[in-house]
């Protein structure tokens, strides 16, 4: 069978710990399912800065471009808070997204039955929740020019004398391609897409709405499409999240709304993400997989981290990069089984108790359940 | 005593209905508290467009500039959905905010005890909730130039051939003045401010963070100040909203986050807002008061709307424009009493039942409770 090449970038904080558990899972699939992975490791974020003075070395970038899929842990930490903007850990991640042109960021917000009581929302509001947010990831205000801070000394009204600028810029082509991703994904789900912007205030939002509608009318008339202002979207996510199937939105709104949606589930330690680009020569999309949670420096190195989000990110890799839907499903089922058995890392330990386990134990249990 | 001048702009949808109840309250304060209001009425939004072809006529703008306070109902409706951007109902509201220079938008998210079960969040997460979001309202991406949609025909990579642009632009002076508003308000509350931006991605966010910190260090060192990325802010609002006292943030983040915060309370029909600018010659700030809810065209004209948000907006006017804190408190207490008595408009009717009342009945009950 095929050999799959993977670049593992554990990053900072709990990144290396959770990634070690993913490696166990990869090994299991190699040993038991006849899959063959060619795995290399490298640095990103603060750990890359410590070694190379940059959060992503050029050679690492080149490796990322060459593999089938990148698996990333998490980046950042207080140690790097005072670094210059240009070398902050986040820039490593943003460079990967931009240069690999990973325009479609898939963020499922799924509520696991065994964990529904962790949500700050009422059980009946979130039980069975299964939303997929498709966030545009390579454009918008994250990357638009001009940008920066400059002096504004000739303006006596401007106490402080500075101006900060960022540019929200979208081309119709950028909008259409991520819209297509959303419609394709919806067809395999509940066939519903809700597009969010602020077309009542921003012209870039008008363009967004018109182009999403164009793709719908010309290519996906069978999918149900609605539009919602992003502020109302934030409200509706809190009020009645189950009204949504797929949400498609821009980079900045997607950042905020997907985090709000993630928190609805109450268990951030469970949520994976995939960032996908155009197909490569071998037909596989450019791809990076990472957990939604951050580097959690406060618990790093203590065996407390929950590796499930990172493991489920690998399940997404199996599904979206390697077309191994069956294997992905088996891995997800193994996670559900372990949860149903009451196995709990610290973040998942609720009033009903359960079997407390370390990061590494959790990985072992999931492998055993496979 | 003083005479207070008010311009009432009921607007569209349920705006006129809820404003009619505010007028009853104003009349009560005139009759019973020796206050004197000079009230004029005019059009804004779709209703202004219908009459004048613009969502805010120049004479209306001039009147708004001349009064002590503007009370606004709500704008918009499906009838106006296809209007050109430049004459949409929202432009009337945005013009008022911009030309009156109402830079500090105060959006309390308060959970009323009698209504805590309306929240989609668990009672213990929201009971007693009392957050104040201070949103910058006259700058940022809402107003920055350049903006617009243009052709991009020489770019073969851009399928669709258009580009949409908006500009996020903040001066240090704009940030400092709204930060001062937030710190002043915090001193009268729990003395805590959390500032939100995306300084990890946007230079305008770096400027925001630095200037808020500057105002703190130089002028309000006694207030506790923290900073949070806006995506984490959205998460924390869902996870544990009671950790916040005052939140200060920019125009766009404020739009999204204040709506999410509003929905935490579960009763949008209860939430007022104030938009304040610099002091006028008489010492009162330029001011506009409006409910957080929209024009709700689906229930307009049926006597179903809840007038409380609009009435509590008038309470904010009493407090912030007229320094009538006692009267404001009395009005708020009257609202709480009526709620505690089980009086409910349709939107507030829960499983435990209550006395169903119309918009107009609710106004009468509140006046009676005064
Ligand atoms: C770390 C940061 C740059 C990043 C973002 O803002 O996109 C993160 O919040 C995310 O959502 O992946
Ligand atoms: C109506 C609209 C222009 C407005 C905004 O985006 O500011 C509204 O959502 C608000 O928050 O007051």
From TrEMBL, chains A, B:
Its cofactor is Mn(2+); Mg(2+). SMART domains: Iso_dh (SM01329). The record marks 142, 198 as: Important for catalysis. It catalyses: (2R,3S)-3-isopropylmalate + NAD(+) = 4-methyl-2-oxopentanoate + CO2 + NADH. Keywords: Amino-acid biosynthesis, Branched-chain amino acid biosynthesis, Cytoplasm, Leucine biosynthesis, Magnesium, Manganese, Metal-binding, NAD, Oxidoreductase. InterPro entries: IsoCit/isopropylmalate_DH_CS, IsoPropMal-DH-like_dom, Isopropylmalate_DH. Binds 1 Mg(2+) or Mn(2+) ion per subunit. NAD(+) binds at residues 77-90, 294-306. Gene3D superfamilies: Isopropylmalate Dehydrogenase. PROSITE patterns: IDH_IMDH (PS00470). GO terms for molecular function: 3-isopropylmalate dehydrogenase activity. Its EC number is 1.1.1.85. Substrate binds at residues 97, 107, 135, 231. Residues 5-366 form the Isopropylmalate dehydrogenase-like domain. Mg(2+) binds at residues 231, 255, 259. It is found in: Cytoplasm. Pfam families: Iso_dh (PF00180). Pathway: Amino-acid biosynthesis; L-leucine biosynthesis; L-leucine from 3-methyl-2-oxobutanoate: step 3/4. Belongs to the isocitrate and isopropylmalate dehydrogenases family. LeuB type 1 subfamily. Homodimer. Catalyzes the oxidation of 3-carboxy-2-hydroxy-4-methylpentanoate (3-isopropylmalate) to 3-carboxy-4-methyl-2-oxopentanoate. The product decarboxylates to 4-methyl-2 oxopentanoate. This is 3-isopropylmalate dehydrogenase. It comes from Paracoccus fistulariae. The lineage of its organism: Bacteria, Pseudomonadati, Pseudomonadota, Alphaproteobacteria, Rhodobacterales.
